[in-house]
Amino acid sequence: DIQLTQSPPFLSASVGDRVTITCRASQGISSYLAWYQQKPGKAPELLIYAASTLQSGVPSRFSGSGSGTEFTLTISSLQPEDFATYYCQQVNSYPLTFGGGTKVEIK
Amino acid sequence: QLQLQESGPGLVKPSETLSLTCTVSGGSISTSGYYWGWIRQPPGKGLEWIADISHSGSTYYNPSLKSRVTTSVDTSKNQFSLKLTSVTAADTAVYYCARREVSVTGENDYWGQGTQVTVSS
């Protein structure tokens, strides 16, 4: 199985901050990586797929980069509605796996 | 707009079988290029992929659950289903159904709202 390690697990930031979350894969997955945002009591929502493609309707302050084993999700200017938990997911091979999540909290 | 809705019992007794159905509306489950899957989230924890199924019935299961999981699809009802046998308290979770693009990029682009399943006597 491909393990995904997200860091940091918790992040405290202020509105307007630039935030970067890292996802490392235990083996190469090309660009087969997606990022999701989850708010309490809600289903995850797709933010980015194919490592760097923004899902339709997602604000442009979100961006993704990377390939192979190292990936990043960046929020260029954190907004109040961005406080949530973020997950990466590898879709390169079965079993599909998720990172452990990064909870972004208000500083 | 595609919508997915999970349904099924919210309470299951230990050792019994958990059965859930996902109803797809606003689009056809038979559309090529997509699989239909199940993902769960135990309380306070992260996401765990359970299974995928194609409209033709090809299945893919998480090895950690494979011996207990079965998925099926009913194209006439635009539904797909999950059965998990011999449940324990460790199977208590919110269960999500989701569509997954499988032609090129592989992401889960549409999700149901999730349904809480508690395993308890």
Name its key features:
heterodimer, A: mainly beta, seven-stranded mixed beta sheet, four-stranded antiparallel beta sheet, globular, B: 121 residues, mainly beta
Explain this structure.
The complex is a heterodimer of chains A (107) and B (121). By secondary structure, chain A is mainly β. Chain A has strands at 4-7, 10-13, 19-25, 33-38, 45-49, 53-54, 62-67, 70-75, 85-90, 97-98, 102-106. Chain A is 0% helix and 50% strand. Chain B is built from no helices and 11 strands. In chain B, a hairpin with a 4-residue loop joins strand 5 (48-54) and strand 6. In chain B, 39% of the residues are buried. The A-B interface holds A 1, 32, 34, 36, 42-46, 49-50, 53, 55, 87, 89, 91-92, 94-101 and B 46-49, 52, 60-64, 96, 100-101, 104-109, 111-114.
Average per-residue pLDDT of chain B, rounded, comes to 97
Would you tell me the structural class of the helices and strands of chain B?
mainly beta
Number of helices of chain B: 0
Distance from first to last alpha carbon of chain A = 36 Å
Largest sheet: number of strands, sense, barrel closure of chain B: 7 strands, mixed
Helix and strand sequence of chain B? EEEEEEEEEEE
Number of beta strands of chain B:
11
Q: What is the strand tally of chain A?
A: 11
Percent range of helical residues of chain B = under 10%
Q: Greatest contact pair?
A: A-B, 25 and 23 residues
Oligomer: heterodimer
Topology readout:
The complex is a heterodimer of chains A (107) and B (121).
Chain A: E1 4-7, E2 10-13, E3 19-25, E4 33-38, E5 45-49, E6 53-54, E7 62-67, E8 70-75, E9 85-90, E10 97-98, E11 102-106
Parallel strand pairs in A: 2-11
Antiparallel strand pairs in A: 1-3, 3-8, 4-5, 4-9, 5-6, 7-8, 9-10, 9-11
Chain B: E1 3-7, E2 11-12, E3 18-25, E4 34-41, E5 48-54, E6 59-61, E7 69-74, E8 79-84, E9 93-101, E10 108-111, E11 115-119
Parallel strand pairs in B: 2-11
Antiparallel strand pairs in B: 1-3, 3-8, 4-5, 4-9, 5-6, 7-8, 9-10, 9-11
